[in-house]
Structure to design on (404 residues):
């Protein structure tokens, strides 16, 4: 069975997923038009699902393939050398999708999971808020019950992909009289519903991958609740676990503008390989990249074998973030006075990636938060005092509540 699956995966990839050159995906989306790129990715995801390579371990009754972790590991190995055009589905399938598989009702799974897998619907994750920072549990977006519905009000920020998403998984406060971790619930929100406003945020690269999203009296049906009422923090922990495993096990793309092979070839083309300092940095980049790739492979295979890495996902996330910043520094040394040159698409992609690199230490949980998690849950160090954990949220002075 496994040998047949490997042969089928290898043949399908060779026929349908040609390798791509290094480039700037966001710049490509802006030059070709976002609608065209999304249409292309939806078509590819549909083809991937029809061929039996999407939702490999998800149950068949919810659109998955119902296969084992062995097939998932094989697919990961065979597809590692390809840049599959499915980026707009990464968040939905890795985070809300896996959370629904774990916590969703049968009705939710039947309604949403098949359309995620087939590429019909795109999802985002709505956690961060302007007044909450890295303390997600301090969120102030509210969901108030009104008969059989909930009324959602508030603001989220740094929401990747909100501008083209159909649905999102959102955290909202449903009982402000409880301590901040105990009065939160998670919901499914229709991103096209009346009262939802999405505004792009431009980052240092000039692109707009993130958004701020406003919710003004958005009505949610009772069936939108994921998990239990006021148990949203438990659901959030599940989703954050999937998020950090997903980000941490991505590894570094071989076609990334900051990949070792890309920078090695650039250095050779610019005549920089004679510089011992550049050679030493490239060697260290190779060693660190390989270490991150191997650790990501270990976690991915453990996860797919049913042994969840838990807090070690934060180790992979932190290592990947540090690698991205180090690669940016190496790239700057390799380019030298060519750093500001945009006379080729390759140089422009590398320069943009250098500017974007520090963001990896923020997205998906800051490096400081990851170090806290690693210290407490991996190394067993004492937890920092939490003086507000037992205080009702409406008695705390956090975010805009400081003004009340």
């Amino acid at each position: 069975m496994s040998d047949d699956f490997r042969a089928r995966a290898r043949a399908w990839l060779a026929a349908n997923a040609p390798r791509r050159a290094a480039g700037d995906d966001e710049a490509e989306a802006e030059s070709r038009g976002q609608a065209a790129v999304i249409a292309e990715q939806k078509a590819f995801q549909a083809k991937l699902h029809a061929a039996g390579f999407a939702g490999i371990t998800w149950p068949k009754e919810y659109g998955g393939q119902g296969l084992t972790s062995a097939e998932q590991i094989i697919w990961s190995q065979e597809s590692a050398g390809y840049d599959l055009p499915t980026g707009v589905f990464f968040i939905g399938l890795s985070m809300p999708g896996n959370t629904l598989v774990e916590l969703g009702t049968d009705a939710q799974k039947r309604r949403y999971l098949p359309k995620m897998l087939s590429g019909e619907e795109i999802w985002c994750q709505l956690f961060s808020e302007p007044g909450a920072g890295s303390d997600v549990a301090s969120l102030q977006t509210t969901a108030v019950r009104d008969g059989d519905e909930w009324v959602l009000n508030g603001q989220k920020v740094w929401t990747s992909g909100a501008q083209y998403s159909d649905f999102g998984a959102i955290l909202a406060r449903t009982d402000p009289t409880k301590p901040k971790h105990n009065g939160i619930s998670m919901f499914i929100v229709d991103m096209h519903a009346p009262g939802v406003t999405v505004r792009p945020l431009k980052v240092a690269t000039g692109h707009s991958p993130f958004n701020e999203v406003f919710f003004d009296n958005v009505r949610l049906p009772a069936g939108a609740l994921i998990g239990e009422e006021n148990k949203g923090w438990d659901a959030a922990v599940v989703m954050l676990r999937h998020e950090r495993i997903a980000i941490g096990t991505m590894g570094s793309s071989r076609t990334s503008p900051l990949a070792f092979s890309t920078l090695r070839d650039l250095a050779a083309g610019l005549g920089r390989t004679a510089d011992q300092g550049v050679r030493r940095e490239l060697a260290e980049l190779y060693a660190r990249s390989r270490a991150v790739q191997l650790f990501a492979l270990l976690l991915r295979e453990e996860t797919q074998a049913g042994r969840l890495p838990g807090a070690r996902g934060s180790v992979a996330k932190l290592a990947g973030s540090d690698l991205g910043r180090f690669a940016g520094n190496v790239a700057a040394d390799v380019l030298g006075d060519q750093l500001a040159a945009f006379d080729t698409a390759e140089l422009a992609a590398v320069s943009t990636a250098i500017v974007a690199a520090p963001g990896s230490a923020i997205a998906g949980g800051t490096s400081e938060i990851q170090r806290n998690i690693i210290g407490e849950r991996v190394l067993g160090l004492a937890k920092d005092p939490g003086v507000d954990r037992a205080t009702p949220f409406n008695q705390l002075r956090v975010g805009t509540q400081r003004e009340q």
About this structure: The chain has three domains: 2-85, 125-230, 249-378. The beta strands are 123-126, 142-146, 149-157, 167-173, 184-190, 196-201, 210-221, 225-226. The domain at 249-378 is CATH 1.20.140.10 (Butyryl-CoA Dehydrogenase, subunit A; domain 3).
